[in-house]
């Protein structure tokens, strides 16, 4: 009965979407093939498809072929019931196709691992046949999506062999979704998980969500907010999760949940959550056993502990390793993992927030169990528009480390701004750490090639919600796409990923491709310029994080802007060198040597590590004040240029998506000016210097900008 329900769902919900181009289909629209040679070639392949076995994953592939054949060719795919037919396309695992594969070819495919795939031509009985294969049905699924993508972007070559395998083991979306369907820091509507209606009602979005992720190779999803709710351990909630786990399994996706460390008290009626207490350990083992009875391939727990008020082992005098290992021991018999976040800081500790994760985790190196991975943000503060890489990468060598990127744009204009994040992630991943090897990069640590770790992870905080186009801003889809591609292979470059996404989303017309790619590749640097240039950071408004707030003070120091920019009449910036907090000392000596010198450090990180006089001469010959003003103004000018270039595309794009983006680009320009005006007017009160003649002068009054309030800003419950 369950398999019949699943077959019905994928058949019904994968039918061609006949609605307008509103973005719902993401990068899987399968537009009609216009080029005649390619059309004939694809038509031949789709005229005789044979699957070597039956299973739910192959059912998915069949439905994807059905959908794409109708889109590409406006006709049905022909699935053969016997291999004796005139087959043109064979689909199956290496073992299923072994009679057609030579020993060397089988060895080559075997080396691709469980999720790898091979596709290409093969001569069988004197005929050229195209095959898609892998070592598992999931590998075949990934190969099938790659096959369809190559057709969609016009790059399919029936004579070429193509193979690939993921470089990172766990490629995960972290949803910050609450059980009441609100989404913390989410800007695309409510949570797509309708817990109230589950398990009885299955929203069709769940299937389309799984399709999209599988097409990128994303194989894990944490369903709930890291600011966790203990209720997830109730059995009636696990029955709801089971529905999603069953739907996602044929797509190669495992579900994870966020564990609240105090759950033994809140759900188990215990007086303590001490990880060394025998009753507490028994509580977690019993809870884990119950989960696996319902979900035999449950991935494990994602944990935020002892950070921003969340409970954790410190309350009992225990360290993070003792807390993580308790959960790891409960999960280990079932093959589950603990993903323990390194985002730990406390206002009660009198240390630069930049340093606190390293202070906590470096002394624990080698003390975590093998099924524990420490999830480290790309930078040490909190997903700022630009941060230097987190110093934990390279600082430990006996602990599994994973990357945490933020796909949702908490500090990057939220869903009103077009900011392509691929260049930012590429910048981080390509940065040399100099440890454990002189040539090591962040990417080579994450994928295990230099770190030697066997459990690898790249996680992204989801930007997905109930908006029709999934991500609020249409171009937010590009960030979801880029994350999936870089999680599969952290060495891919952002520009080629952007090009691929544009072709899949808007088509292959060269002028269109060039124009949109130009907009995307400039967008991140533009946002950094009009928000936080030259290493400035944490200048946003309080709580909602919407818009500028460089004046924010009061309450917790590390939640204020003044804590980070430290502007005064002498200069601006956070001294993190030996003469200041010495956070710079947590990096490799090669980095410390270069970055300790304000004349040698890359200027994009200057004010992150140095408190610099307003008259300091920059590489351009301008003073720091002048350079800052030019950067802020340059960001606004680039935003204006982005809209001008977009408007030139009118008539080349469908009206719905054109006007959607066009309106938001107008909003982005106003918000860019708001950032520039508010920040420069505020910092001028310290520099006491005039604005350069060459820039557009900030408009308005500083007190006006300070007076603005945003109770309707999305992403967090408002303080009315």
From TrEMBL:
Pfam families found in the cross-reference section: Glyco_hydro_67C, Glyco_hydro_67M, Glyco_hydro_67N
Known catalytic reactions: Hydrolysis of (1->2)-alpha-D-(4-O-methyl)glucuronosyl links in the main chain of hardwood xylans
Transferase as UniProt keyword: no
Gene3D superfamilies for this protein: Alpha-glucuronidase, C-terminal domain, Chitobiase/beta-hexosaminidase domain 2-like, Glycosidases
InterPro entries (alphabetical): A-glucoronidase_C_sf (IPR037054), GH (IPR017853), Glyco_hydro_67_aGlcAse (IPR011395), Glyco_hydro_67_aGlcAse_N (IPR005154), Glyco_hydro_67_C (IPR011099), Glyco_hydro_67_cat (IPR011100), Hex-like_dom2 (IPR029018)
Keywords assigned: Carbohydrate metabolism, Glycosidase, Hydrolase, Polysaccharide degradation, Xylan degradation
EC number, as in UniProt: 3.2.1.131
Domain named Glycosyl hydrolase family 67 catalytic: residues: 152-470
Residue ranges annotated for the Alpha glucuronidase N-terminal domain, each copy included: 26-147
Domain of life: Bacteria
Domain Glycosyl hydrolase family 67 C-terminal: 471-694
Family: Belongs to the glycosyl hydrolase 67 family.
Subunit structure, as described in the record: Homodimer.
Protein name: Xylan alpha-1,2-glucuronidase
């Amino acid at each position: 009965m369950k398999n019949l329900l699943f077959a019905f769902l994928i058949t019904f919900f994968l039918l061609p979407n006949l609605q307008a181009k509103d973005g719902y289909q993401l990068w899987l629209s399968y537009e009609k093939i216009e080029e005649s040679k390619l059309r004939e070639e694809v038509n031949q392949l789709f005229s005789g498809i044979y699957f070597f076995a039956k299973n739910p994953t192959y059912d998915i592939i069949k439905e994807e072929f059905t959908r794409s054949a109708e889109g590409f060719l406006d006709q049905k795919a022909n699935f053969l019931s016997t291999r004796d037919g005139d087959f043109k396309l064979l689909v199956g695992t290496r073992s299923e196709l072994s009679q057609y594969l030579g020993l060397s070819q089988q060895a080559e495919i075997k080396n691709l691992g469980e999720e790898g795939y091979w596709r290409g031509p093969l001569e069988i009985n004197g005929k050229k046949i195209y095959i898609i294969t892998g070592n598992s049905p999931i590998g075949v699924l990934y190969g099938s999506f790659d096959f369809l993508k190559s057709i969609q972007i016009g790059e399919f070559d029936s004579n070429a062999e193509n193979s690939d395998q993921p470089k990172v083991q766990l490629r995960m979306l972290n949803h910050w979704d609450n059980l009441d369907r609100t989404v913390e820091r989410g800007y695309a509507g409510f949570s797509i998980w309708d817990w109230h209606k589950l398990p009885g009602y299955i929203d069709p979005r769940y299937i389309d969500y799984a399709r999209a992720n599988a097409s990128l190779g994303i194989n894990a999803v944490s369903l709930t907010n890291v600011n966790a709710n203990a209720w997830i351990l109730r059995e009636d909630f696990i029955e709801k999760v089971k529905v999603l786990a069953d739907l996602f399994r044929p797509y190669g996706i495992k579900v994870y949940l966020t564990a609240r460390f105090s759950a033994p008290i809140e759900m188990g009626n215990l007086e303590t959550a001490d990880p060394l207490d025998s009753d507490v350990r028994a509580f977690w083992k019993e809870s884990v056993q119950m989960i696996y009875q319902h979900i035999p391939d449950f991935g494990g727990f994602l944990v935020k502990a002892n950070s921003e008020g969340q409970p954790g082992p410190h309350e009992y005098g225990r360290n993070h390793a003792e807390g993580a290992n308790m959960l790891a021991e409960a999960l280990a018999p079932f093959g589950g993992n603990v993903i323990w976040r390194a985002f730990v800081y406390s206002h009660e500790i009198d240390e630069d927030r930049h340093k606190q994760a390293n202070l906590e985790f470096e002394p624990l190196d080698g003390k975590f169990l093998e099924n524990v991975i420490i999830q480290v943000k790309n930078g040490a503060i909190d997903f700022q528009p630009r941060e230097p890489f987190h110093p934990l990468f390279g600082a430990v060598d006996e602990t599994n480390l994973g990357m945490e990127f933020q796909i949702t744009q908490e500090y990057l204009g939220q869903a009103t701004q077009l900011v392509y994040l691929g260049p930012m992630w590429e910048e981080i991943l390509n940065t040399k750490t100099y440890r454990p090897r002189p040539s090591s990069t962040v990417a080579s640590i994450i994928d295990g090639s230099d770190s030697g770790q066997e459990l690898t992870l790249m996680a992204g905080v989801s930007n997905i919600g109930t908006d029709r186009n999934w991500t609020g801003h249409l171009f937010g889809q590009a960030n979801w796409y880029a994350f999936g591609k870089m999680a599969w292979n952290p060495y891919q470059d952002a520009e080629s990923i952007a090009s691929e996404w544009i072709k899949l989303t808007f088509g292959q017309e060269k002028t269109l491709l060039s124009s949109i790619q130009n907009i995307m590749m400039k967008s991140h640097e533009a946002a950094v310029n009009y928000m936080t240039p030259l290493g400035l950071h944490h200048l946003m408004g309080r709580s909602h994080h919407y818009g500028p707030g460089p004046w924010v003070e009061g309450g917790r120091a590390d939640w204020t802007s003044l804590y980070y920019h430290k502007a005064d009449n002498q200069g601006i910036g956070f001294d993190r060198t030996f003469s200041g907090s010495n956070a710079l000392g947590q990096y490799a000596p090669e980095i410390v040597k270069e970055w300790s010198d304000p004349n040698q450090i890359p200027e994009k990180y200057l004010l992150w590590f140095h408190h610099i006089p307003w008259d300091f001469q920059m590489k351009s010959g301008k003073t720091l004040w002048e350079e800052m003003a030019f950067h802020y103004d340059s960001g606004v000018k680039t935003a204006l240029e982005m809209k001008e270039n977009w408007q030139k595309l009118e008539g080349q794009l469908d009206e719905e998506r054109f006007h959607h983006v066009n309106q938001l680009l107008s909003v982005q320009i106003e918000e860019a000016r708001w950032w520039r005006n508010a920040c420069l007017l505020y910092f001028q009160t310290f520099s006491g210097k005039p604005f350069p003649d060459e820039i557009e002068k900030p408009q308005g009054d500083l007190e006006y900008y300070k007076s603005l309030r945003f109770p309707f800003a999305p992403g967090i419950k408002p303080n009315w």
